[in-house]
């Protein structure tokens, strides 16, 4: 259990291994970034709930992702830009507002999912991911080079990357993040892609 762990609630879903570009402008999150860079500590990104009360603390989902900053720069608009990379899933408990106006919580670090080869029925998903990596936006995120053969050996990472890079809603992405078994995630992704394919209708 990690105590007083800083959280960054956002209207998106972060995944282990995946890179997320952000623009930082609120003073409390500028302080969070400064602290994270100086100490090399992670912080948690949690997904804001779809229904937010007015004039109240943000409501967010309990499962999030710990991230570390892997790059930063000044944006053309003068704001600080950072790139975060997910490290592992977390489960949030007992969140509260700290004196510096950051949301901090007791969090449990979720055990990494097992490294399992991709089952034959889901091998086509590796080629879907390969095509996504060629997208100009994804290329700007600076992912380390990785051979296609490596993706066939890791169902969990394949599922995380597809969940993040495919055009799913936040609701669907959070559902995918919440799953505990890599094969269940790949099965759901395949089903969602089948539903999106007009040739199957």
Detailed description of the structure:
This protein is of the alpha+beta class and 201 residues long. It has two domains: 108 residues, Roll (Archaeosine Trna-guanine Transglycosylase, Chain: A, domain 4), CATH 2.30.130.40; 81 residues, no CATH class. It is built from seven helices and six strands; from the N terminus they run E-E-H-E-E-E-E-H-H-H-H-H-H. The chain has a five-stranded mixed barrel. Strand 4 and strand 5 form a beta hairpin. 30% of the residues are buried.
Record the SSE blueprint.
Blueprint: E1 2-10, E2 19-24, H1 27-39, E3 43-47, E4 63-74, E5 80-97, E6 103-109, H2 124-132, H3 136-139, H4 148-151, H5 155-165, H6 170-178, H7 182-196
Helix pairs in contact: 2-5, 5-7
Entry summary:
Helices cover 32% and strands 28% of the residues. It has helices spanning 27-39, 124-132, 136-139, 148-151, 155-165, 170-178, 182-196; strands spanning 2-10, 19-24, 43-47, 63-74, 80-97, 103-109.
